[in-house]
Structure formats: structure tokens, C-alpha cells
Amino acid sequence: MVDLPFDVDDPRLAAAAWSRVAEPPDQHAGALVDNLGATEALGWLTAVAAGRVDPGGEPWVRAVAGWVPRLENLDIRRELDTLDRLGGRLVLPGDPDWPTPLDDLGVERPLALWVRGGAIVQGRAVALVGARACTSYGEHVAADMAVGLAEAGTTVVSGGAYGIDAAAHRGTLGVDGVTTAVLAGGVDRLYPVGNTRLLEAVTTSGAVVSEVPPGSVPSRNRFLARNRLIAALGAATVVVEAAWRSGALSTASRAAQLSRPVGAVPGPVTSMASAGCHRLMREQGAVCVTEAAEVLELVGVAGEHLTDDDRPVPAGLLDDLDPAARRVLDALPLRGSAPVTNVARAAGLPATEVRAALGHLELAGRARRTGSTWARSR
Fold first, then answer.
1. Which of 17, 265, 272, 280 is most open to solvent, judged by the fewest CB atoms within 10 Å of its CB?
2. Is there a contact between 150 and 123 (Cβ–Cβ < 8 Å)?
3. Through-space distance between the first and last CA atoms of the chain, rounded to whole angstroms
4. Structural domain 88-301, CATH architecture
5. Is residue 147 within 8 Å of 172, Cβ to Cβ?
6. What is the topology classification, in CATH, of domain 323-376?
7. For residue range 98-145, what is the model confidence (pLDDT) as tens digits?
8. How far is 281 from 232, CA to CA, in rounded Å?
9. Please, which residues have CB within 8 angstroms of residue 1's CB and are 6 or more apart in sequence?
10. What are the tens digits of pLDDT across the range 59-96?
11. Residues in domain Smf/DprA SLOG (predicted)?
12. Cβ–Cβ contacts within 10 Å for residue 146, how many?
């Protein structure tokens, strides 16, 4: 019997609990909650965990195997208490301040948003993203573009990271504009630490947002997952600088999948920091933009200039690992080692799938076995 220490019939507690149980983006969890509601879905899961209900076909057996380990010691009230101490709030689909553009994600829509600050998006929004290791040129363009967008009453959305993200947030704050940072970890752990003061300033202008609860650690898989939220929140996505392989290209690809227009800022042909932008324009139909006015034109057409053939598709730009192996590698501790059960709980995957992924990672030289535990390869 699986008994949770909180009221599973409380819709807000149940939705918050699902954001802890399911590792985003989880299409099975999204479909289950959409069809049953968070409370009935959580009740079904606890019944399955207790052996009273058959989960159904193989996809559901695999999904449940990833969820059940996270039920152990689950008391979502702790995370909600942390959020309350930070002056934050939980925002659910259907709430007055829920950003409806996220609904375009379908079953990959967040199950809940953990928010510090004010409105997540005020009016029209544009996502400004780019390389962490940016050049002074890229930093200047991002800040200048953010200033123009903010002065036009546009919310600037980015990821709070070093480089282009930080320049976009700073530019917006410099003219008292509204900016929102979407984090890969919990809102109690402002990341990166070097941007703590900047992110605290963002909470006074717009909001710092995450789809995972307080206490959640940012990981590569969560950075990739949060990119879809940045893309969905913006009426357009602009990549200011990006290397040939860059997380910003993932955001652009997700924006195009959502029929959002994508812009890219050109740079020197000799600059590796602009190689990804040039690639977007050459191969994937991104629109060349150089200033805020051109971005606003891009938002005005709202994707009408793109045909289905023009829109970018995911091209595996970021990693040579399959999704399961990527999540398992993320779940391995940075220092020391962990048994398979701990890795499975952290990754939100069945133990059998984790063992298979660890085998592949070991063959690839990315993980190593140390007795009964596993560690990252040095």
C-alpha cells in the first residue's frame, strides 16, 4: 500500500506532486493528467504502485516504473513551504496568470510552474537566446535588442545563463522593462550562482520560473527540456550568437516546431560564435534580424512567412546520446558513485532501462562501474 502524507485529493498538491514525480517533458504524465486530472491521475498511480491496478500496456508499464521510485518519501508540502518562504507561488494550467502560449506544447505542457516574481509574461513576448561564451559583439547586440523590445512593451524571455541570456536580461532591466528567466533547476537555487543578483533583480521586473520544484538540481537534460518553455513563451525566438552545436539552436528548433518565427543575428564569417546563426539562416530558413524593429516585424507576422517546408526540424545538434542515456548520464553524481536504484530515481526511468543505458555509456567511455555502484568517467 502506498500512502502519501498529504491530501492527494487537493488539486494543487496533486499537480505539484506530479511536477516532482514526472521528469519533464513526460508525454505519458501529460496525457494522464490531461485526461484524468491531477488528483485522479495521482490516485491511479498510487493504486498501481500498491498492486491494486494494472497499469496497462508496455508504454505505461515503463512510464510507471520511472514514476514509482519518486513516490518514496514524497511530501510535496515541503517544496511548497520552501516556495512560500521565498515569496513565490505555484501556477497551474487554468489559473488566471497561467501563460496560455504554453498550451501549444500539448502533452509536453508543464504540469505546474514554480514562480518567483510577478506576471510570467506581460503582453507580447520575445525569446532572446544565445551562447554562454559570447563575444563582446554578441553581448552588445543582445542588450541593445532587449532595450528596443522592452521600450516597445515586449516581455523579453531568456534562460538566465551567462553570456547572451544575461545581456538580454540586463538590457531589459536597464530600461525598467519586463523580463522572465526560465530555469532548469528549482527557483530556490538561482543558477548560475554568478548570476544570483541578476536573477533576483529579474524577480522585481518579471519572474523567475521553473517547471521542477525547489530542491531540483539543474542538469543537461533539464536545460534541454526548459528550452521548449522558452520557445513556447515567445511569440518569436531570436538567436543572437550560437556556435555550430549550441543549446540555443535547440530552442530555435522547438520554436519552429510550434510555428513560431525564428530570427538569427548575423556575425563575422570568421567568428565561430556566429556559426550556428549562419547555419539557421542558411539551412533552416531563419530570418536575418539586426535590431529590435526587425524583431517586432517578425512578431507581427507571427509565422505567416514560414511554410511547412521552411520550418526547422530537430537535427540532433546537441548530443550523440539517445534520450535515456543522456538522462542517466545527467543522473550520475558529479563526484563519487551511486547504485542503480539511486540513478533510476534521479533519472525518473525504470531500473532495467537505466542498466541498459549504463552499459552503453560504459562502452562509450562515459561511465564506469565501481563494484555495485556507477560513476562518471573522468
1. 272
2. no
3. 42
4. 3-Layer(aba) Sandwich (3.40)
5. yes
6. Arc Repressor Mutant, subunit A (1.10.10)
7. 999 999 999 999 999 999 999 999 889 999 999 999 999 999 999 999
8. 20
9. 50
10. 999 999 999 999 999 999 999 999 999 999 999 999 99
11. 90-298
12. 31
Model confidence, pTM: 0.84
Contact between residue 37 and residue 11 where contact means Cβ atoms under 8 Å apart: yes
Decide: 109 and 233 in contact? Cβ < 8 Å.
no
For residue 143, the SS3 value is: helix
| pLDDT reported for residue 302 | 37
Parse the chain into domains and list their residue ranges.
11-75, 88-301, 323-376
**Interval 54-66: pLDDT, tens:** 888 899 999 999 9
AA identity, residue 265? V
Q: Compute φ and ψ for 152, nearest 5 degrees.
A: -90, 5
Q: Tell me the pairing of strands 113-117 and 207-210.
A: antiparallel
* Strands (E) located in the chain: 89-91, 113-117, 125-129, 155-158, 179-182, 207-210, 237-239, 262-264, 287-288, 367-370, 373-376
Residue 27 and residue 30: Cα distance in Å, rounded? 5
Q: Which residue has the cell 487537493?
A: 10
Length of the chain, please? Answer: 378
Neighbours of 62 (CB within 10 A): 15
CB 179 within 8 A of CB 200: no
What region does 336 belong to: left with phi over 0, alpha with psi -120 to 50, or beta?
A: left
For residues 350-374, b (16+ Cβ closer than 10 Å) or e, as one string?
bbebbeebbebbeeeebbbeeeebb
Same CATH fold assignment for domains 88-301 and 323-376? no
Q: Which helix (DSSP H) or strand (DSSP E) does residue 167 occupy?
A: helix 164-174
